[in-house]
Amino acid sequence: MDIFKSxxxxxxxxxxxxxxxxxxSIINNVDEDHYDNFLVAYSGGIDSTALLYxxxxxxxxxxxxxxxxxxxxxxxxxxxxxxxxxxxxxxxIGVELICKNLNIILDKGxxxxxxxxxxxxxxxxxxxxxxxxxxxxxxxxxxxxTLLYQLFRGAGVKGLSAMPLIKxxxxxxxxxxxxxxNKKNIEDVITYNELNFINxxxxxxxxxxxxxxxxxILPTIKExxxxxxxxxxxxxxxxxxxxxxxxxxxKIDFKKYSHKDKNKIYLDVKELEAYRFNNVIxxxxxxxxxxxxxxxxxxxxxxxxxFGGYDKTPFFSCAEYEIRRFNNYVEIMxxxxxxxxxxxxxxxxxxxxxxxxxxxxxxxxxxxxxxGFKVNKNVEVKFRKTGENIKINNSNxxxxxxxxxxxxxxxxxERILLIYIDKExxxxxx
Length: 430
Hints:
With 430 residues, the chain is an alpha+beta fold. The protein folds into 3 domains: 2-239, Rossmann fold (3-Layer(aba) Sandwich); 262-333, Chorismate Mutase Domain, subunit A (Up-down Bundle); 345-429, no CATH class. It is 42% helix and 21% strand. It is built from 14 helices and 21 strands. It has helices at 15-27, 46-62, 79-93, 112-126, 140-152, 157-160, 183-193, 209-224, 228-257, 274-287, 295-306, 364-371, 399-405, 410-413; strands spanning 2-5, 37-41, 65-72, 96-101, 132-135, 166-169, 172-175, 196-199, 258-261, 264-267, 315-317, 322-326, 329-333, 345-347, 353-355, 360-362, 379-382, 389-392, 395-398, 417-421, 424-429. The strands form 6 sheets. The protein has a 6-stranded mixed β-sheet, with helices on both faces. Residues 1-11 have low confidence and may be disordered.
């Protein structure tokens, strides 16, 4: 770990003007009545140190509460030392600090960069109160880095728009007030105010994609185009406008081709051309708080799910969600959990029935409400096999016909609970 104390070496530097730019990034975008506290993401590095210093001054000026949050990823041998530095610095400037420790578990194919980022933001968002402005220390060169990173990943328009200045989250806001700053501006702020910061040497490891872009690609670009960060930021802003148009179109298409049934949203967009299909699928996935599908995934969804064999029930599956088709409609859901279809559960008299792998937790009252009469003995719960019959309106009907008539998708038929009393099928629990 390296902790630096900068010496005062400034020439053409106007601290007050930079502070004004920082201030305007906040007050020009959020009405003062809409927030009462700041939450600053603070790693202890040079960028977040400048951010925290400015934020403290803003909090004092506008009489707002301020907290900082430090995320210890536990990925570096100096992680605890960095945390201690953050604790000491926040004590020195009089800012409450929240420290959170992460235990990041990687699945096959996961990127440590992406996984850490997701876990970090999840932890930060958990600490956001109502009417909070949460701030991160991204600057204009980070914007360029992000755009190039997304470009090399094959991202769409949304990815290439990089990072917005402000993002509304429920009744709070995520703001990046340093986006109009370059790295030199930040270094000058640190030097001028003689602020201590830590140097995370992992930022020099070019095995990480973002570091490679920062260390190897951007310096070469800067030689030819010295003002590249401002130009790229302008392009990202233009792309943001395109995103809004895409989102508006997606909402129109989604409203036209979707319908709701039993609290589930179904989609039928076969009439759409491929580019509009991709647009509305991305919207649908995002609305369900899942990760955006890649180009190859979109192609698979388009070919195999929406236009696959109509005598089958095609589906697309990834780690976070599944998209399944039944008849002409498609449903998005979390991956189906495995279960044992031969399993028989005894629902003990007046106790709850818990089937954890299917997220089932039912009370005896639930049972009697479903049946419409009192039950005074144990009940058996099974899954469908073949040949079952159920009495409906005093007449027997095959369970197969009942499910088909009620348009129950095949993947749900396999998981529907069958309620037996004295060996007789009395109800189904969908």
